[in-house]
Amino acid sequence: MNREICREALLTAGLLRSPWLARAFDNVDREAFVPEALWLPVQDPEGLWTFVDRRADPDAWRRAVWNPHQSVVTQLNDGATPPAPATGEFTSSVSALDIVMRKLTALQLDPGHAVLEIGTGSGYHTALLSERVGAERVTTVEVDETLAATAAVTLESQGYAPLVIPGDGLLGAPDRAPFDRVISTAAVRRVPHSWVEQTHDGGQILTPFGTAYSNAGLLGLTVHGGQAQGRFIGSSAYMWVRADRPTVELHVPEESTSRRSPIAPDQVLSGGYLQDFAIGLQVPDVSFSHRSEGADRKIQFVDEAGTSATIVRYADWWEDGAVTSWGPRDLWAEVTAAFTWYELHDRPHITRFGITVDPHHQYAWLDDPSKAVGG
Q1: Is 95 tagged catalytic?
Q2: Among residues 14, 103, 223, 358, which one has the fewest Cβ atoms lying within 10 Å of its Cβ?
Q3: 90-94: strand order across its sheet
Q4: Band of the pLDDT at 246, cuts 50, 70, 90?
Q5: Dihedral, CA atoms, 349, 350, 356, 360, nearest 10 degrees?
Q6: Is 115 buried (19+), middle (13-18) or exposed (0-12) by CB count in 10 A?
Q7: Is this prediction's pTM over 0.90?
Q8: Side-by-side strand order, sheet with 323-326
Q9: Cα–Cα distance measured from residue 140 to residue 163, given in angstroms and rounded to the nearest whole number
Q10: Nearest C-alpha neighbor of 345 from the set 372, 366, 331, 370
Q11: How far apart, in whole angstroms, are the C-alpha atoms of residue 365 and residue 169?
C-alpha cells in the first residue's frame, strides 16, 4: 500500500470527485502528519492493540498510513500510555481517508470560506481545509495542549499557518467568528449552541453525532435565525469529544424488581449499528455492556445519571426473573419500546432522521421537524 494505490482506490470509490479534493490529496503529505509510532484498531493475539513503529517496520507503517479505509490511532488514554504495545481507550487518531473525503465533500466548502475546525489532532485534516480556503481562513481548536503544539509545528513545517487554539472546542472560537463552516473531527451528543451562534446565517455545521447507546451518525446542519437544523447524511463512528464521553457512576438502590422479557434480547441487540442508532435517539442517556458470555450471557443497561440499571439474561428470556431492574426506571422496557417504534415505522434509514438545535434545547425528529422522537 502506498500513496498511488490509495489515490486510485479513492478515485474508484468516487471520493475524489471534487477537483479540489484530488489536488489537496496530492499536495498534502499525509506521512508528515502521522507519528512514527502508532496503533491500529485491531487486536493482536495477546489482546493488545496492534502497534506499528516506522523505525522497526517501515513497510507496515506505510501500509497503515495509506490504507484508505482504516484510521491510525496516535494516542491512547489521553496521552498517558507511551508508544508501545498496549491496551486502552483511543483518544486521538488520523482518520481514515475515505470518511475524511466523504465529510469534506458534504461540507460544500468554497474558496474564501471562514472555517472553524473542532479537533486539530495531527493537523492533517487542517491542512486539507487550508488547501481549499487558505490557511489564514482556518481556525482550529484542540483540547489537548500537547497535540495542539505538535500539530502547529507540523503544519508550519509543511507550509500552513492556520490559527491553532489550544482549548475546549465546544466553546468554539468567538474571537474569530462568524464562520461559514464548522466541522468537527470528534463525535458529540449535544451540538453546542456556541457553534450555532458563531456561524453565519446560511452557514453549515458538520459533525459526527451519537448517543450513549450508539455513536454512529454524521449530521449536517444549516443555521438560520439562531437555530440549526438538518438531517443525518450518513453514518460515521468517531471518538467522542472529551466532554461528551459517556461515563456512569452507579448509585442504585439495593432493592430490585424482576420480570420476564417480552422478546429475545438478540432480536433487539443484533440488528446492526443503524438499528442501534435509531433506538439510541429515543433512549439517548442509556448505554449497555455485556456482563458475561456463553450459557450465562447477560447484558446490562445503565442510565447516564447512574440511578437506574437493568440486567437481562439471554438464555431463558421468557422466564420470570430474566429481567432485573434497580432504581426508578426499567431500562429494558424503554429499549424494547424504542425497538417496537422502529419496527412499526418500517425500520427508517438514518438519513430520515434529523436534529434541531435552538438556544434552549436540542431534539431529534423523523422525516419532518414536527415529528419529534426520543428524549
Answers
A1: yes
A2: 14
A3: 49-53, 37-43, 72-76, 90-94
A4: confident
A5: 120
A6: buried
A7: yes
A8: 256-259, 323-326, 309-313, 298-303, 286-292
A9: 6
A10: 366
A11: 26
